[in-house]
Amino acid sequence: MNCRRYRLDQVANFRDLGGYACDGGVTRYGVIFRSTALNKATEEDIAKIEHLGVRTVIDLRFPSETKELPDRLGQDMDYINCSLMGTTKLEQLDVVNSSVVETKTLHRMYRLMLLNGGKEIRKALEVVADSEGAVLFHCAAGKDRTGILTMLILSSVGVEREDILVDYQCSSTYITKFTTDISGSNIYNMKWILNWIDREWGGVPEYLRQIGVQSETIQKIKSKFVENLYM
Fold first, then answer.
1. 145-156 and 215-225 helices cross at what angle (nearest 10)?
2. What's 72's DSSP letter?
3. Helices (H), the chain
4. Could you give the 3-state DSSP secondary structure of residue 166?
């Protein structure tokens, strides 16, 4: 059975990235998942995640966050920390006006992420490509660092921009009951960062190439994540 969003007790915004039309077909269900952090996950939550075939968890948070609020994991899950902000310091994130509901300043943080986190982005994509079983990646609220990695993955397999924007925008609705973060996921921020990538690099594929992501890595992701519906 295919499901876009799963209902868990203490993990929010747990979504399957399957079901999007893309180059050559549609993204396959049961391969790549996204969510909020797993530090509050119940035993039942973990059992459900394991049942979905998740064998690798990529934590996109700062090391200090992972130490303070460590993930709860299943016995057979591999855990990798890829701090997607890279060399960005916590104090640099004051460029975001996080006290405003649905702020339009999150793109400033996303820009820092893409400029300073290339090494970690490359590592995260390599883990997705090489992992056995399904992959789950998350940050804290499951919308910013998670949203950027989602955008890069969906873009790399040819999902249209409209679907990427919608996937990003709905996060704030799904996390309302699970976080005090009111900054939201205003669609303006993802539109801005996609347009910025176009201006600076000519698109996501060239950005990924510039940070060292190999074509073989993208091909591995496509092979496991894209289902051909036309054969």
1. 90
2. P
3. 43-51, 63-68, 106-116, 118-130, 145-156, 161-169, 171-174, 187-201, 204-210, 215-225
4. helix
Q: What angle do CA 221, 142, 191 make, to 5 degrees?
A: 75
Question: Quick check: 135 and 58 in contact, CB under 8 A?
Answer: yes
In a 10 Å sphere around its CB, with 0-12 CB exposed, 13-18 middle and 19+ buried, how is residue 178 labelled? Answer: middle
Residue type, 88: T
Beta carbons within 8 Å of 155's beta carbon, 6+ residues apart: 164, 203, 204, 205
25's torsion region: left (phi>0), alpha (psi -120 to 50) or beta? left
pLDDT tens per residue, range 150-206: 999 999 999 999 999 999 999 999 998 888 888 999 999 999 999 999 999 999 999
- Res. 231 pLDDT band, cuts 50 70 90: low
User: In which residue are the tokens 């400033």 written?
Assistant: 108
User: What is the model's pLDDT at position 1?
Assistant: 72
CA distance 177 to 220: 36
C-alpha angle 25/187/220, rounded to 5°?
30
Q: In what order do the strands lie in the sheet with 226-227?
A: 21-22, 25-27, 226-227
**CB neighbours of residue 97 within 10 Å:** 12
Q: Which amino acid is at 172?
A: S
Q: Which pair of structure tokens corresponds to residue 18? A: 């399957």
